[in-house]
Design goal:
This protein is an all-alpha fold and 62 residues long. It contains three helices and no strands. α1 packs across α2 and α1 runs antiparallel to α3.
């Protein structure tokens, strides 16, 4: 499932970086700290590699 917004894509990229050990988990905030715990590396890759073009900055609450 691809990211629904640019913010979700950015959070997934931060979580993926932490999951791989490139960024300390203590630097994560908000959604990215939850994502690193609840999602696998392959799920994070799918979200993080979603193209941002045409995505809203934030998803609506649908």
């Amino acid at each position: 499932m691809p990211a629904r917004s640019a913010a979700q894509q950015k959070a997934a990229g931060a979580a993926l970086s932490a999951k791989r050990g490139d960024t300390p988990r203590s630097r994560l905030k908000g959604a990215s700290s939850e994502m690193v715990e609840s999602m696998s590396e392959s799920q994070l890759e799918e979200f993080a590699h979603t193209p941002r073009k045409g995505k809203p900055e934030h998803a609506s609450g649908d």
